[in-house]
Amino acid sequence: MRDQSTRPTRRGVLFGGAAVAAGALATACTSNNEKDDPAPAAQTGALGGDNDKPGKQVTIGFSAPAADHGWTAAIAKNAEAQAKRYKDVTFKPVQPTNDINQQISAVESLISEKVNVLVMLPNDGEQLNQVARKAMDAGIPVINLDRVFPDKLSYRTWIGGDNYGMGVSAGHYIGKKLKTKGVSNPVIVEIQGIATLPLTQERSKGFADALKSYGYSVTAKQDAKFTVETGNQVASNLLQAHKKIDALWNHDDDQGVGVLAAIKQSGRKEFFMVGGAGSANAMREIKAGNGVLEATVTYPPTMAASAVRLARLLAQGKGMADLVELEPPQSVTLASETVTRDNVSRYLPLGFES
């Protein structure tokens, strides 16, 4: 989820903000009814409609980075769980790796096996662009997951999250609450992922733009490298530097484990916090309601489940049930939803473990 220099605005699963239309992926989404059973279907989408009836047997190849981060691990789990729901799908994942050359070799093996469709989350879109193009040239449609390939001829469909939208969602939550409380000149702290990455810069810009609409701005920000350890260190430093804080936005719930640990150790409770990505542990913290974390904004790893569904439709020559067009769209941008104590029960089954 994290480290790709060319990827477009980027963890929801409710395709309300999808580029194609509000209901475009309705058949790929789980129900929002709290009375529904949130068992495995909540993670992979409830089957239903003509598109989900058994069709032509297809083989879907899958390649992703190593599961060394909660969000990345959830990507692989969502893809595999979705594929298992179809009797007409053979799922062929290759060994996950953070080594560019190993991922290239793994994808080349899938091309040699002539899979029908390839779902691919590249370690780096630019460096994996050529092998994706090789698949496309071989007649294998590529579903480009999250980290975009620079050459549009290297993928059939891109699906991913909205980084700028994450910042906007966090900014509106913080701005509205502070404005309602009548706070002027608030101290607003931002803990980024990796400051040099475009995805981080997009999140920060969305955050700043949303805060500006309330007359606010970020007081201090520092990056925490998407790790628990650095999140803990950065949060400790910011807490020491600012004796009073009104609000804090942390870009990533995985590094947020360290951020929350530092806050709890400090005993500080005068501010509220918004997380980012939508991890299950963050949602449980929100649901408990006894800490500073009040909300998180999603960047759903369930995009991998939707990518598998799109791959199956492409291989079977089907369109999307709620669209007039005969084939799936070229790109789908997922909405960044705001999860609070009021709606956390709906989102918790979709959360990933950090």
Automatic annotation (TrEMBL):
Region (Disordered) residue spans: 31-56
InterPro entries: Peripla_BP_I (IPR028082), SBP_2_dom (IPR025997), TAT_signal (IPR006311)
CDD domains from the UniProt entry: PBP1_ABC_sugar_binding-like
Signal peptide: 1-26
SUPFAM superfamilies: Periplasmic binding protein-like I
Main location: other
Gene3D superfamilies associated with the record: 3.40.50.2300
Keyword Coiled coil annotated: no
Compartment(s) where it occurs, according to its Swiss-Prot or TrEMBL record: Cell envelope
Pfam family, one: Peripla_BP_4
Domain (Periplasmic binding protein) ranges: 60-318
UniProtKB keywords: Signal
Family statement drawn from the similarity comment of this UniProt entry: Belongs to the bacterial solute-binding protein 2 family.
Cross-referenced PANTHER family: D-ALLOSE-BINDING PERIPLASMIC PROTEIN-RELATED
Entry protein name: ABC transporter substrate-binding protein
Organism, scientific name: Actinomadura nitritigenes
